[in-house]
Amino acid sequence: MKTKQIILFASGSGSNVENIANYFKFSKDVTISCVLTNKSDAKVIERCNRLGLNALFFNRQAFSKSDFILNMLQSLKPDLIVLAGFLWKIPEAITDAFPNKIVNIHPALLPKYGGKGMYGMNVHNAVKENKELETGITIHYVNANYDEGAIIHQAKTIIERNDTAEDIASKVHQLEYDFFPKIIEDLLSKM
Ligand code: GAR
Fold first, then answer.
1. Best of 9, 16, 47 to mutate for ligand 1, by most ligand atoms within 8 A of CB?
2. Average pLDDT, the chain
3. In 3-state terms, the chain is what percent helix, strand and coil (to 5)?
């Protein structure tokens, strides 16, 4: 089988990027071509340096006010584009160019707690405030609307009464580490 190429997008810490990189470290089937970030001081860049991954920073101009990133993606021809904690909305020119080739992980059970402003701790704080009894992750395709693409996989975790928003975040992160690389592998194996 030809080696599949993936491109990761991340905006912050990048613990999912690191987990995905470790999962595919010895894989002959999957390679990470590069990691793209919209934050020049994001911790994910440090992680990429340590892990030997190509990291590239881009700004709004390159992303949504010109075709720079679109052109770059088209020339790299990734089999899958993976949003691993990426917080900007993907421009329609990119979602149109890569139908069913962009996947996102969301730290809640969509359609609950999705949409603009619903990311990271904002999600877990809202889940805690609403006294939810469970939360989880949603891995879904990306289309032109925030968090609305077809769902590929969801996994749940129980929330205990005493769990803080940080406890919830850590349970959700664990689900992300357990499921995201496997789902990526599964999608690639069917291509
Ligand atoms: C993850 O929990 C991911 O689900 C979330 O950001 C976190 C990034 O963590 N993504 C969103 O909220 C997207 N709306 P990480 O940088 O440690 O991988």
1. 16
2. 96
3. 40, 25, 40
Is 106 a residue of the active site?
yes
- CA 54 – ligand 1 centroid, Å: 20
Q: May I ask the CATH architecture of the domain 4-189?
A: 3-Layer(aba) Sandwich (3.40)
Give residue limits of the domains in the chain: 4-189
Residue 107 alpha carbon to ligand 1 centre in Å: 6
Q: Is 119 in the pocket of ligand 1 (CB under 6 A)?
A: yes
Is the pTM here over 0.85, yes or no? yes
Burial 136-147 (b: 16+ CB within 10 A, else e): bbbbbbbbeebb
Model confidence pLDDT, tens digit, residues 77-89:
999 999 999 999 9
